[in-house]
Amino acid sequence: MDLITSFKVIGSGLAAQRAKLDVVTSNLANVNTTRTPEGGPYRKKSIAFAAENVEGNFDSTMKGIVKSVKVDEVREDPNGIKMVYDPAHPDADAKGFVAMPDINVMVEMADMIAASRAYEACVTAFDSTKSMTLKTLEMGR
Length: 141
Hints:
The protein has helices at 3-29, 105-139; strands at 45-53, 67-76, 81-85, 97-101. By secondary structure, it is of the alpha+beta class.
């Protein structure tokens, strides 16, 4: 595998984990949002990744094996609403229930930690690839 392909794969991983962190951050920021411009409470978002072939100068045995990651979809949870009894809330219905986003803060924090660790792993892979490239160039002197 050539150097550019390595950086493409690592870059796609960095971009994917950054997108996941953005989604988790949005969910955490809107955990108590009961009114959105679209109407109704905020709906929890989730992200889906997909593998993508990396184009490169591979021989026949490597073609199709090296994959990068891409964001396939960011979707809203259609059932992500919970009804909470709070008659003093300005968005409460006639029975005193408020439609709130069904977001588990602990799950979101765990997702954030996992995405941060994956991002750090990509950065480490980038640094290692860069170091190996520099050492290879030094050998040529």
